[in-house]
């Protein structure tokens, strides 16, 4: 940017410095000379030496005393822009009635919160008085205890809320109630912070200065009568809804005078009279929203009591009526109804006390009252966090799980109750404070500086909320971990039965907490079919050569125990996890590893057990290579390939899945989905590989058939039946169950072959293989058939019989 030195004194030359050119000197006559070159005709031969005159800002002087005034070109531009930007200032205008309508009907979701806001205001007034009375004891006077009383009147359709707090003067009425969004509490807190000797009181609730106007949610007219101990007069503030004005007058009725405090009377609308003038409804609202306000709250309630009364005995028939003084009287009891004040907030906020000060039975009692439970919690934790976010919390693990799966799927629960300075804000959260898989946890969270919206109903998304959520989750895991390590194993067993599936859901949804979730998981195993085993115990019991954690996913514990995949592993004393719940397999696949051990599905191909004899395996593979190709040719596209198995010991064959497709269990689950996509089912289904056990007689027979009679119809039929049987035993579903049944019936007919004689005597003849008939009775005279293995059964026309 160019710099300009302008003349500051009369007839002083102007010097201009440019970033891109040599310095220039301008005289009053308009001549310009370059200070670096070409200046001899204008300047003295000795040249011009410039020096800064520090005694006069913005002036430089030559050797001969000539003065030059410095002016920055950028400053000149800024002055010009400022002059252009300056203009008239205007104040925002607001239509008060419209603004009030927005505050009342747009900020709050539920009408019932009006009582929470007014009780909070009353609590603030009491807090202010208690605080100020420390230095000014005369403010308390003889006006009684610090308390709040709420009296609904169903007959007249009114609610009266009275507190014995600090009250307001006329000026304060205008300032606080006459100025919208003017928070008296905020001003009070600011004054306290400025006075370092007094400090600040964090118990005050008000923030925004609009809570009072929530009264117009249900009221068509509001009357505020208030008496400040600093004033001799009592004033009445009165306003109606949908109005832009209010009235303040002095109270002159002696019967309505207050000793101290504020009395608010709401004249309810026609639509709200029935609901909010009902004493029981008011008491329930107080218990829900203001249960833990630090001052006693009394509500006007109808009660009943039993009293003794004297009644005259009625004369019997035929008896003369006696004088009144001689009439006998008998005592009886009657139940009479009466109205009286009842304390509505008996339960104390135990989270405000230290954890060491609260007994176990107090936690249990608080849990039952707050969450309407009848069982004691399995575990609880009480903690306070400080730092960036300060809050107190008590969390519980319920004694019983949800009765249906909807609560698992739905992240919205009523289990976490959020309080701000002991005033209930909300219990309607959608994962802001807890993730879905921990939605079973119940508890209270109380903070003084949560980022709420103006209605104090919605928790706004912010960094503070994320930090709070992280700490709550961590404390919850600590509580569950402590429960798992307790001496009473039955408690954690009960927890796992009720909430184990929630933690498995966490394996899928919360990868960041895998290290905390995995040690809490429990499974049945091939070595522990009756008791649940942790992954830590599994790793401790692993052999030296075991490099992985093996698992098998099935639909039940019984089918897992008898699965053919297990045979070789059980023989080698390798433990296998049984995943018998639908969510188990997906959860384990999301974990992938634990303590540097990979999870391996034993129902999939390329199972490595670590102790194979490579030479023997190579010889066996060469010997049965022809059979594998022949079976693959018979089955066609049903299988991807046929190979010799390393996992079988007693079964003839098994059908395993490819590495990257669904297992048999997953395929079954996906087929059962109500909204499953059949097109993706075929795409995601893993390739199927038939593994054969070369030590089994059936495979040896088929090997002989492959070499001696590869075109035999019976051999091909045996291969088809072998595949269908492996399909079922491996956990897959047959495409045509009826077709499979017919194949089994045919094989049974061949195996039986009438060898024990026909029981139906109507069948006179049986057809022999050469087409001739013989009497059926001839078979009955034959000797009893010898029981042989199925592989040893041969027909006379056996094409590959030795």
Characterization of the model:
The protein is of the alpha+beta class and 802 residues long. The chain has 23 helices and 31 strands. β3 (24-26) and β4 (32-34) form a beta hairpin. α3 (113-132) packs across α7 (279-289) and α11 packs across α16 (584-591).
Radius of gyration: 46 Å
Report the count of strand segments: 31
User: What order do the strands of the largest sheet run in, or round the barrel if closed?
Assistant: 12-11-10-13-9-8-14-15
Major sheet attributes: 8 strands, mixed
Structural class: alpha+beta
Residue windows where pLDDT falls under 50 for at least 5 positions: 1-59, 196-208, 762-785
Overall outline: elongated
Q: Estimate what percentage of residues fall within beta strands.
A: 15-25%
Q: Which range best describes the helical content: under 10%, 10-25%, 25-40%, 40-55%, 55-70% or over 70%?
A: 25-40%
CA distance, first residue to last residue: 108 Å
